[in-house]
Amino acid sequence: MECKLAVSMMHDYLDDDLPDQQQRELKEHLLSCPDCRAKFKELEQTDMLMFSLMHQNPVASDDLVSRIMSSLPKTKKENAFVTWIKRHPALTAASLFLVVMLMSSVTFWSPDRQLVVRGTDLDQVVIKGDTVIVPSGKIITGDLTIENGKAQVYGEVNGNVTVIDGSLYQASTAHISGQVKSIDQAVSWLWYKVTNMFSEVAYR
């Protein structure tokens, strides 16, 4: 038997996992090989030491565990804000989305932008400089939005009329079936954008 094979069999022998035939072969080799015999004694002593350590008084092991635990660095308490974020991930994501949308809207808001007119039937309106006129006898179906300009309504609007950062004049002959909104401050403008955004998402 080679020494390398004998060494590999020693572990199984000490664990009582070696078949009888191989046990006999290992013993014969140990009788004839002083090096393997010395190696086997070392392994046997190590095995006995481990066995005694595992079966000693449990109070010592508890004491060792407590000393190890006390020497470990203390875990820092989580910030209350971080804890709240971990407990409410959906609400946190929605809040971040709203903040990003508001910040992006702020970058695009400017009180001196050019006139912008949005709506349907825009061929029914007359634009003179920064003034948008709905002439008497003309009918606009749908909403009309005017940014950075003046609105003068003499005719009929079957929808909402919104004026952002401007002024609105409604003649006695005018008829507006929807809401009339006048927005001239950045905060109101942002609120208008956000509510419109969510309304558009809801109707898609």
TrEMBL record:
Pfam families in the cross-refs: zf-HC2
Residues of the Putative zinc-finger domain: 3-37
Source taxon at top rank: Bacteria
Family of this protein: Belongs to the zinc-associated anti-sigma factor (ZAS) superfamily. Anti-sigma-W factor family.
Name of the featured protein: Anti-sigma-W factor RsiW
Organism ancestry: Bacteria, Bacillati, Bacillota, Bacilli, Bacillales
